[in-house]
Write a structure and sequence with these properties.
213 residues; mainly alpha; 8 helices; 0% strand
């Protein structure tokens, strides 16, 4: 990466990592609900700014929209679970649009099978964890997003893996609503896996767009 690009654009990634890390460690502090909500949204919010700063194309703007809607969902979840879920649903729809615009010209049968497993397995597991129709419908969109990411031309070891981490994080949320309600494990893993997934998606997409340009 050119030195000028490092100076001008890496701060947004560093700011995203810093905000996400600080939030993870202070989320239970009595520092005021509003400040915690803003801090929570800042992590992925900075990734949206990073996307706009690094690539001004239609795909770059669409990625920024994906991240901005996710950041909105992060904040709304602290106020209302339904509204937060709606923001994330919109984020998944935008992400699917991005991935469908950038599909691989050919895909191995094994990769198609894994995409199908994400599409069908995500809502199935969500149903088994919660027995909630609304959660299952949301999980269908989540699985579709991950399947599209896996079949897109963006690198699977970054964008595909990031989408899978996103799925894993949300499944932990669903598990906390059911069999892991009394476990401390979801609280430890949900935020790190979610942010790591979003970080991999943002940087993987931008890297590919810039390489193509």
């Amino acid at each position: 990466m050119p030195r000028r690009a490092l100076v001008e654009h890496r701060p947004w990634l560093l700011a995203a990592i810093a905000a996400a890390t600080v939030y993870f460690f202070v989320r239970d502090w009595p520092m005021g609900e509003l400040w915690l909500i803003l801090l929570k949204g800042a992590g992925v919010g900075f990734l949206a700014i990073y996307a706009l700063a690094r690539h001004a194309s239609a795909d770059g703007r669409l990625l920024a929209l994906v991240m901005a809607l996710s950041a909105l969902g992060d904040m709304l979840l602290e106020l209302d679970f339904l509204w937060g879920g709606a923001a994330f649903l919109a984020s998944h729809v935008a992400a699917m649009a991005l991935y469908l615009r950038n599909m691989r010209p050919s895909t191995a049968a094994s990769q198609k099978a894994l995409a199908l497993a994400l599409l069908a397995g995500t809502p199935l597991i969500a149903w088994l964890l919660t027995y909630d129709t609304g959660v299952t419908l949301y999980a269908l969109a989540l699985g579709a997003m991950a399947a599209c990411a896996w079949l897109s031309r963006f690198p699977r070891y970054r964008v595909g893996t990031g989408a899978v981490l996103f799925v894993f994080s949300d499944l932990l949320i669903f598990a906390r609503m059911g069999p892991l309600a009394s476990s401390a494990l979801p609280a430890l893993l949900i935020w790190p896996t979610y942010f790591a997934g979003q970080f991999l998606i943002a940087t993987g997409v931008i890297q590919t767009l810039r390489r193509r340009a």
